[in-house]
Each structure stands twice: as C-alpha cells, then as structure tokens.
Amino acid sequence: xxxxxxxxxxxxxxxxxxxxxxxxxxxxxxxxxxxxxxxxxxxxxxxxxxxxxxxxxxxxxxxxxxxxxxxxxxxxxxxxxxxxxxxxxxxxxxxxxxxxxxxxxxxxxxxxxxxxxxxxxxxxxxxxxxxxxxxxxxxxxxxxxxxxxxxxxxxxxxxxxxxxxxxxxxxxxxxxxxxxxxxxxxxxxxxxxxxxxxxxxxxxxxxxxxxxxxxxxxxxxxxxxxxxxxxxxxxxxxxxxxxxxxxxxxxxxxxxxxxxxxxxxxxxxxxxxxxxxxxxxxxxxxxxxxxxxxxxxxxxxxxxxxxxxxxxxxxxxxxxxxxxxxxxxxxxxxxxxxxxxxxxxxxxxxxxxxxxxxxxxxxxxxxxxxxxxxxxx
Length: 377
Hints:
- The protein is of the alpha+beta class and about 375 residues long.
- Helix content is about 15%, strand content about 25%.
- The chain has four helices and 22 strands.
- The strands form six sheets. It has a five-stranded antiparallel sheet. Strands 5-6-7-22-11 form a five-stranded antiparallel sheet, with no helix packed on it.
- Strand 8 (about 195) and strand 9 form a beta hairpin.
- The termini are far apart.
C-alpha cells in the first residue's frame, strides 16, 4: 500500500502496520508477562505469504535472482554477502526486503570459485560446524518482528551479539564486535522467549548453535547473505501438534527422562541430566529476499527428495539451536514469556564476517565433514 499523507500521519500509520505484522508473525505479547498468549493454531514454517517462484536450478551458482516489484523504497537494513563495487542496496516493499540481484549473483559465483581446504585427519562425515554461546541479556525487544519498537514484545533471552535491541540493524550488529559466542567472527544475533519457573527467570547454562545441512547433497550449500533474518516456530501456538510430535523439551544426560511435570508438558529428568530444547531453521532460501512479511516465506525446508524446492532453490546452512537449561527433577511451574512450552520459537539475524562464514561453509558443509567452532577439521 502506498501512503500519500503528511509525515506525521505516515509515522502513525507505519506504527500501526508494524503492530499488524507482529500479530501476523506471532511475536507480540505483553512485555515480560509469562503465559500471556492465548491458544492459536500454528501456520507452519514458510506456509504463509506469497511464494517467490523461480526456474533456477537449486544451488546453481550461475542463477541470477529476479528483480523485485516496481514500487520498492530504499532501505539500509542489509547488503549482499560479498558486496561488489557499485552494487545496489537492498530495497523494501510490503515487508519483503530484496537484495541486489547482480551483487548476489557475483557473490555466489565468487563463493563457488573458492578452492576448499583439503580435508585432513579423519573428521566425522557430517556437514557441520558450530559456535558455543552463553546468555547475553534480556529485553522486551524484537528487531525482526517489531523493529524500533522498544519494549513492544514479550521478553526475550539473547545470546551472541551483545548490542541486540529493538533498533538493531545488520550494520549495527556488524559494527558491534562484542559477542557471547566463542567465535569473534560471528557477530550474529540469536534469541528465544525467556523461560520462567514460578515467575523467576531461568537462563540456559549453555547454547550450541549448529550450522549444518539436512539435504541429500550438501555440496551446493552457500553462505547466507549479510543481513538475512528469519524466525521459526509460532509464539501464538499454545498446544501440542495432533501427532504429539511438535515443540518438545527433552532430557539430555545419564538417566534421561524419569517422569513428567504436573501439567505433563515438561519432562522430569534424572539428577544427572538437564532439560534441553532443540530448534531448527529451514535451509532453503529463495535467493532474492533478506526478509519477508511473516519472516518465514523467504525460507523453506527441503522437499521429499531431500533437495530444495523450486520456489526456494538456494541451499544455505541449516541453523539449529541446542539449548540446555539447569533443570532436572523439578520442572513444575515452567512457562515461557510467550506462553506454554509449545509456543517456543526462535530468531536469527545474520551478521557473520563474510570471509569467516564463507570459509566454514566451503570447507566443512560443502565437503560433508564436521568442523569445530574455529572452522577446523
């Protein structure tokens, strides 16, 4: 919709539109109030919003993403993964943030021209690298769903980039070098709804962020463009899936699960185990957009053949959070800032240093081997 009004009216309408997008994306709750959400059905990852069809072959480095619609307005929220001289900045239209096609095509071509580092030793044959992280801070901000609206969200627990707040952009994350993850090359921001037990904050003891591939052929995986952002899960979803297989916490460690909480939604773990939650993002990108109106539609999962669908032909790393909480036998009274355990969701805002991410993807994922946090075999 094109607004033709005074500057003051435009600011008011823009704020209302941002709130509408937040409600659609499932991440607008009363700030810091555990269990504030009401029941709602989950729309599913990438299931809403228009598709971005393309005839490109999945992972083809020669594929050139098509241009966005005509009514685009300039935005400074990101740039191509490997910027080239004279490349255009991203443009935003209706919630879609579109990258420069020529710049992205050049970045893709340069990436696949890289010669991978020869594999040494005997690494595990799994396409993967990781970063280990600690909790950074909490606030009721969400720079993806509610940008610039300070305190507009339910409370979140952040790790990675220490500067993350409602006003964060790709450039601000890149300029802030302080991170709680063990790789200084990773300046990305990561966050989830804050956990409470009987009203008191429970922070993870540790978080491991895995970058891998679930595709049949990981060799065409390429880095995310700088500034790509996405969410997975649905803050409005307050009930289990019909098959009882969705959004579950589990016990990791000796003894495992020994019972269930009083409300049956959390496991009771042996004293030698901890509650863990794993959250995995999709690993197929449309090749055109840094973000979409629901923050999901520009991403997709691989199809039944183990390849990326034609609508999202570009394989990118599958980001997965493994979150360990210091809870075992006592799991009663646990809620999330977004509501029940089934409302767990996660956000990722890419601000990796381009060269460091490209090296890890080319050396580790494309060669199908496991690397450590430093990107070594």
